[in-house]
Records
---
Amino acid sequence: ESVVVASRVVTIIRPPIMWATNEVLRLCATVVVGLLAGVLLRGHRDDRAGRASILFLATVAAHLVLPLVWMRGAPAAVLHVFLLLSLAAPLAFWLLARVHFDDDFRARPVHAAMAAAFLATGYVAWLATIERRLPGLLFAPENRRFWTLLPKLLALAIVLHALLRVYTGAGTDLVLPRLRARLSERCAVRTAD
């Protein structure tokens, strides 16, 4: 009888389905990202850079939660919404960089078309490699490596373009030269003492 009681206690303490450490850390990171998005939403709702930051944080949260949604067996519609938001993370980063470092930037139809092409490529790659729904010569098993790498390479190109825009945009920013001048002035004053 004591063995039966002990097994019941263990069952209560340790449920049959445990959350892995990486899943718990993903959820914690999602909470932090959500809190940051809430703060930005509260204080910078009318600012273009604030809205772009909120969009970026939403896509990052979706990227963090996507493996959990997929592995826990969410309905297909929910999974695909998280998938598309997750795929949009590099685009949201690019948009954030453009809005923040280029005051004259306005999204044009060509930007929307390129974003749609990128999202479609990632979505087709998911359907071909993960869900294996797309049969045919183009999506044959020997082409899976190509379809796995293509969205990642495109995302890398988008992020590198955004970082290049940040680098070139930071040169025209007046804050950095002022900070450097102030720092050199303080260093000169301290060395003179």
---
Amino acid sequence: SVGDELINWTCPTIYNEDGPSIEHPYLNGLCTGNKQLDQNGNVIIYIPKNREKILEDIPYIRKAPRLFTRITNDQRIDIEKIEVLIDSKHLEKTETKDLCPFVPNHHTMKTKLNWFIGLYEMYSTFGKNGDYVIMDFQDKVPSSQEFTMRVKYMLQTCGMNVNIDRSKSQLYLTYQECMYLTNMGYEPVTPFP
């Protein structure tokens, strides 16, 4: 009724410091979903040339520049990327039985947030005004709608209630949520807005 106050809803933060951890959570987030395997079972990922700095702290076998061409509206657009070969021994099991990629829902807070920052590096773009981040998983991650929901649930256990568009498999981070991650000590190489 008129004059009633709205209840503020916040997500419970579940630190779960006794939960499982991953040896290379950032690398696992980076390799989630959109990857290929070479003949030896090593993982191949492609990262944008302007994000090469993310390779500084991760173990990889080799990296090489690659040029991709996209034709849009009869215009040729060349995109520079870096092909990175990673030994699969550094990665956790990446799929569940329903083919949805692994999301560390029951892991330690440190593992969850480091994994998410790796995922952010791979799938983030800025919104129209540059004041929010879109993470688009559609056509890039198997079972993308379910994966988007699982990432949202994981972030809720970290105290963040992000918005999603399940039909497009997109997750949205506001400036406040980006600042929350920064204040927690998690800053990606690709800057937040």
---
Amino acid sequence: QVHADFYGEAGAEARNSNDPAVMQKFIADSRNKYVGERLKNQDRDLFSALDLQEVFNPAADQASRSMLQTHAAYRVHEREKEYEALATSQIEGVLDQYVGNIKPTDNENVRMSTIRSAAFEANRVLYDPDTGIVKNGLAAAKGNELLVDSIATKMMKTGNRMYGEVLDHVKTGQGASIGKTKYAMEKIRLAEE
């Protein structure tokens, strides 16, 4: 019952809160509601105290622990989605600021310098020691995919292949170019079609 309540309207506040006290209150309220609806007939108990102690209470305690774990996993997932959306927005801003301002009349040195600057700034969105989403908990592989996806999307929206060149100047943790990974090459190929 508590799982169903958690994902329903009654659980919205607990689902969206990082405060453990809110979740604990939700669990207690759900338990009290269940006791009132299923274990009592008005003011009369339907089960003996021993039945409750031996059967209901252990099951309810296990359900409470399970719900706390479910809540924690849910919050982590929601935070990751928020970080990903923020990082995507920041990467798009970097791409607009740098690559989006390259002019057809710019010489090759200016163009490459601007692309390298875009790669550096996009990499900072992920790996900056203070604010980078990878440095603050997102898996590096997921961060790299996010960067590739953002650039591929930008390429598809604009038809500008220069955005893909940014990936050649962003390095993986092992020092290889992200643009040379199988994932990036496939995404860029699809974006170019």
---
Amino acid sequence: GVKELIEKTFFKIETIDEQKDLSDFITWLYNHSGGTPFFIVEILDSLYQKGVLYYDLDTWKLNIELLKRIKISEKIEEILLLRLKGLNSEEIHLLKILSLVKYPLEQKIITNLYSYTANVNLEVLKSLGFIREDYANGRRYFSIANQIISMVIEQKIKDEGHRAIIKEIIPVIEENSRYDTAFYPILADLY
């Protein structure tokens, strides 16, 4: 995954503080990129430009303390906003739902949210890096691909829109997952 990509790209990378573990950075990078190569490259470029990641004495160095204080580049947010403009209103609506729920939704829940005439293409959203697909117990689940996407989408939702979307998704989750106890905490958070 992300660790292999970093090792293949940088050959060797280490923290400037030997007490800090590189696995924290790998987790941070994965959470912010969703493992999407495009976002990984953009984030690493941003870290390099901000001096968090630099090359010294034949080794890439990472300043973990500085990493904790930086904000992700607005350039990535701008790219995402441009990509979002290419989606239809139903696809953006689904991204808002997934962003607010913050939990993978089973495909049947998504299907029940929209009529068969709805123009929501999960494969397109997946190929654009907006959502990721997981399989569990023979079922397909979809979630927002990473925190940056979620943050950008949530900024687009007004407070009143936030509540309306939550009111819309609660009955669909209750109807489709009434026997799935994993959804109880999610429903509690949504209420």
